[in-house]
Amino acid sequence: MDNNFGVISRASEAILYLILATIVSGVVLGVMNVSGPFEGVVALITDVRLLLILLVGTGVVLWVISHDQFGSR
Hints:
Blueprint: H1 2-32, H2 37-46, H3 48-72
Helix pairs in contact: 1-2, 1-3
């Protein structure tokens, strides 16, 4: 039972990180384009290709990091 809870909490933690990464990347994109942070988040969410690249890249990085952390403990 403990193992399933650990998997669920790690999955929800990864989702939270993906949301945060989306917001941060959108803000960075908006600042770089000098259109404002909020517009950057909107542009990132509305451009599906950018969002997919971000989600896949972040997911892979988080998966590697989480497996490395939990493997070493």
